[in-house]
Structure formats: structure tokens, C-alpha cells
């Protein structure tokens, strides 16, 4: 879905709520930016260390051995804001088959073709908020309540129409 629609917020909420039910997990924030800033190798090391609950020093064991250990663990992994094939290929070497039974991988992206190219089982598209939901969310951010006081009601409605139903815009404007 488009930027600002809430993909990261939803993925973070799912991860936070479920990660205790898994053997390990990792939420890699903003893969697009982090990959260009730190490189995919650093992200892969972070993913392995957090998922296996290992210190970085212990990661210099054979990659095959580490991947083998992962294949027996039920893990939850979130790759947030992926924008290139190489990011998925390098961070999920072996795809979902490389993880234990019951594992879950969540990928947020603006590019639906990336998901189909990697055989993603389920694709959920986050849609824009309708006027009523948008108005309630904006009012929560701006006025700390779902309905503003009289003179601000019309202003709130105009802001909501300008923001096109994007939750991030309501947070910024509120």
C-alpha cells in the first residue's frame, strides 16, 4: 500500500502482540533505508542475532549451521518497508522453508509485485480510512477525544478531506 497508510503500525502491533508465542523473532524497521545505510550483511546479522537470541560475537559460526538452527525454530520475522528483490533474497535465504513449522514472515512494501515474485502466500492490502474513521482518528490526535468542540468541528472535517484518509497525515497534522 501507499506510504503513510499504516502498514508499519499494523505490522508492529501484530509483532508486539504475538512474538511471545514464538521461539524467536525480529522486527527489521525500514529495510529500504537501513540496507542502503548499513548494508544487507549487517541487517542479516541483526536478524540472526535477534531471532536466535545470540550475541553478535557468536554469529561468526558457520552460516549453514545458523540457518540449520533456524529451520527448527518457530519464529516471527517482520521486514518493514522492503523495496528490492535482493533484500528479501538476502534476508530470507531459503524463503519461508528455511524456518521451523508455524513460523510467520510479514513483509511490508509499497510494491505488491515484490510479494508475488517471491511466492508470498497471503497479501493484505491496507486501505485508506473512510471519512468517519479518519475524522475520529484525527480528533484523537488533535483534541484527545473523538469529537471536537463546536468551532473546531468544521476545521477538523476540512483537514480530514485534505489528508486523503492517510493515518500518518492525521498524526502529523494533529
TrEMBL record:
Q: SUPFAM superfamilies this protein is in? A: P-loop containing nucleoside triphosphate hydrolases
Q: Which GO terms describe its biological process?
A: defense response
- Where the record annotates domain NB-ARC, the positions are 1-146
Q: Which Pfam families match?
A: NB-ARC
One GO cellular component term of this record is: membrane
Record membrane topology: Peripheral membrane protein
Q: Which UniProt keywords apply?
A: Coiled coil, Membrane
Subcellular location, in the record's words? Answer: Membrane
> Which molecular function GO terms apply here?
ADP binding; ATP binding
Q: What is this protein called?
A: Disease resistance protein PR
Species of origin: Capsicum annuum
The taxonomic lineage of its organism, from the top, reads:
Eukaryota, Viridiplantae, Streptophyta, Embryophyta, Tracheophyta
